[in-house]
Amino acid sequence: MAQLTIEDEEYAEKGISDATAEKHDGALAAVQRLLKVRGVRSYVVHTIALKLPGDGRPFLLGERKRYAPELVVRSDAGGVAATVTMGPRSGCYLVSIPNGPDLQAVRSGHPEKVVNLVLAAQPGGRA
Predict the structure, then answer these.
(1) Each residue of 84-95: pLDDT tens digit?
(2) Which three-class secondary structure string do you get for the chain?
């Protein structure tokens, strides 16, 4: 397992660039393909914040902030089984499993390890 950095924990407040989001999408797509082969449902969530000016000027876009995409994995019962994001500086997968251990980091070249963590957390341990 990779080690998390303070930058990874604080990046959500700052947002990320479009280029970084595109790289993260590619890495999460690798995990999503492996999950699909195993019959596990998942989807990617993209969040963009838009801060509009409050001075009454019409049609100005304001400040746009993009957050890291997040892969949401569904359990057989329909609940959230896990969420996966990417560390912006470390480049590792960050796996969060509800009612599981703390946030787990997996080096970016190993999407199969992320899938194994997710499957092991499923009821019946589909791994």
Answers:
(1) 999 877 789 999
(2) CCCCCHHHHHHHHHCECHHHHHHHHHHHHHHHHHHHHCCCCEEEECCEEEECCCCCCCCCCCEEEECCCEEEEECCCCCEEEEEEECCCCCCEEEECCCCCCCEEECCCCHHHHHHHHHHHCCCCCC
